Amino acid sequence: MTTGALGQKIARRIRAEGPLSVAAYMAMALHDPDEGYYARCHPIGAQGDFITAPEISQVFGELIGLWCAVVWGELGRPDPVILAELGPGRGELMSDLLRAAARVPDFRRALRLHLVEASAPLRTEQQRRLAQFEPIWVSRPEDLPDGPMLLVANEFLDALSVRQFVRRGTDWSERLVALDGEDRFVFVEGPPSPAARLLVPEALRDTAAQGAVIEICPAAVGLAAALGARFSDQPGAALFIDYGYWSSTPGPTLRALRRHRAVSELAAPGTADLSVHVDFLAFTDAARAGGAEVYGPVPQGRLLAALGARERVVALGARATPSQQRAIDSGVERLLDPGGMGTLFKAVAMISPGLATPPGFERGR
Ligand code: SAH
After folding, report:
1. Ligand 1 centroid vs 118 CA: distance in angstroms?
2. How far apart are CA 185 and CA 179, in angstroms?
3. Do 79 and 150 have their domain in common?
């Protein structure tokens, strides 16, 4: 039996329409307006289901704030400038970013804060933390107004829905979510189809192993292409940080997390976070094709170290008690850890053509 009100709703849709694509299942599980995970849950932090970099250390958002201020200078100090964040979570990154940005008063005065957020409970938390900056909320990136823009996004792309395809012989079929004889959700394979084959990246169509599962993320690719086109036309830059891969085929990366533990992706939709690894090759190719200059991916640890993470720890330490100092040290070391978050997470920048390399993306560092 499927559990929960959302499980029942998804099951009814499958009985009426047939198996759902993995993308449609993910979209309902995360964003159903009544029962979806982001509509109901407080996902982030020690009490939630997962923890993110800005929750681990204030230094993360501060360094991104300085990055924005430098790139704003490079864009010709536009005033006003849209400062946008995709998926701001609890607003921690943005409040740290704005505190650091206050050190460049002209930038602080010029920026107009825009938050792209689908979740009502998280909008409430963002409002609580960021009200003094008079944010404007929109639901989708394409609803951001025109004009010079700086955009940041941490762990946003990994929440976007993916489609999955399976190789059988020379054919490919879409992986779908269906109901088994006992009304439990199960993965099945749709019929082999030329359309499915065409959606698989060309390099993998005939080289992936038999039975291999690959993922594509139309929403991430569409976003990259749209931002690329925007930045070729209007001054702007974006910084994305996420976990993901580069031109490898890791198999299905869709995972479910509840209270910091992995659970079944299909067991109780709406009660666990669903996320995927980002295909940075597809993402950067689309941004470049759109017309932006693209840098990275570089490992998060390398970016943060180049932006001065350790210097910031020393500066904060001057005013900290010994136990605060230990907490600051261990938070930053966790973000830099080459055996952990420092390499698992990667950063990509896109920027209007003809400008200097954004800080932290210089070659050979
Ligand atoms: N950036 C934050 C939160 C990451 S969690 C941090 O680093 O802590 C993902 C965020 O993206 C949440 O705020 C979630 O509500 C939002 N989100 C996920 N999918 C979305 C979508 N399709 N449209 C808009 N916001 C989305």
Report:
1. 7
2. 5
3. yes
